[in-house]
Amino acid sequence: MPVLVASDLDRTLIYSAGALALAVPDERAPRLLCVEVYEGRPLSFMTETAAGLLGGLGETALFVPATTRTREQYLRVSLPGPAPAYAVCANGGHLLADGVWDQDWHRQVTGRLAEECAPLGEVREHLLRTADPAWVRKHRTAEDLFAYLVVERDLLPEQWVKELVAWAGQRGWTVSLQGRKLYAVPEPLTKGAAVREVARRTGADLVLGAGDALLDADLLLAVDRGWRPGHGELAETGWTAPGISALPERGVLAGERIVREFLAAAAAPR
To answer: Residue 252's CB: how many other CB atoms inside 10 A?
Structure first.
């Protein structure tokens, strides 16, 4: 039976320049490997050590990226090691198997959304009407599944966020603030559901996972053992659950520590 490792990407395994959080003198900073280029510019990084470790993880486990990124955004990322046999995109709305879109899974997900929560159009209209252009830089929808804003974090009113959380919750939606992005996502749209499906298909007898944000909580509840870094929404709120370890490392060094934990747990006798 295989070991399945399902991990969030951004701010868990890979980091933008602004999220590296390298609190060491420049001469002691780790060497970095660029794993994503966007519009000709380097965008996301891992330490070279983490990249080497992740490249070897495939010898003992089935690695499954589990991201809120759209399929297009995910395909920009070039992770070390063999191409993942499965990938979870759009927060569980899309499942890729050997790079091929699983349309049956997507139909199941959209069916649940239609039954269990308010439509995307209603949420999109509310964001357009209530979010102030003074601190909103972009309005976006992702794969016709959820919406997000790119905001000026320093100008974002805390009270507006609280009111949005309450408004969305009444309609079966959740809100997550990650860096400069504020997400509004249907509650039934989860990475955890997709990871459980991959575990069922592969017959995995041990599932490991990692994530940093509120949208990763359901993923961590779906695994046998999990890790969260010392930054992000889960760390800020002190979120935990049985089998979940809170790491002290922050930034890109947390990503390296997480890969080490994956390797150790995957290789341990069971």
So the answer is: 26
